[in-house]
């Protein structure tokens, strides 16, 4: 789904730009997808592998990502608005990740079949206008794990 979703996001650029003048869109393909395969319209920057991508995500105005837990929770912890598109038959992304994000009041889910350029443009524009009010992400997991292990020793 990766390259197909990125093509749809890039195709949403003209519609979003009409709603958000001066929009800067960066599409990150990752190391396995050729950036040229996206066929992005003018005005869309396409990059392959980006080191420290989590830092770019923490600084973005809005992100569009697949529905994996690590990336969506990084965005939640950073308080960044985002749209996520879970894999269709992926139990963790469809159930566990979605439930956790709903609990944190984070992200906007768009099902892949519904992720047309128009629908993505609407979702991205809506997220740009929203001020995130996420529940905080606990940051004391290592300490809590150490305490539980220490009780066993």
Outline the structure in words:
This protein has helices at residues 2-11, 13-19, 53-59, 69-78, 91-104, 117-129, 141-152, and strands at 25-28, 44-47, 63-66, 82-85, 108-109. With 153 residues, the chain is mainly alpha-helical. The strands form two sheets. It has a three-stranded parallel β-sheet with strand order 3-4-5, sandwiched between helices. The chain has a two-stranded parallel ribbon with strand order 1-2.
Which descriptors would you attach to this protein?
12% strand; two-stranded parallel ribbon; 153 residues; 5 strands; mainly alpha
Describe the sheet with the most strands.
3 strands, parallel
Task: Tell me the span between the first and last alpha carbons.
Answer: 46 Å
Low-confidence stretches: none
Query: Number of helical runs?
Result: 7
Number of strands: 5
What is the H-and-E element order?
Answer: HHEEHEHEHEHH
- What level of helicity do the residues show? 40-55%
Oligomer: single chain
Describe, in short, the structure shown.
The protein is mainly α and 153 residues long. It has seven helices and five strands, in the order H-H-E-E-H-E-H-E-H-E-H-H. The longest helix has 14 residues, at 91-104.
Task: Detail the topology: elements first, then pairings.
Blueprint: H1 2-11, H2 13-19, E1 25-28, E2 44-47, H3 53-59, E3 63-66, H4 69-78, E4 82-85, H5 91-104, E5 108-109, H6 117-129, H7 141-152
Parallel strand pairs: 1-2, 3-4, 4-5
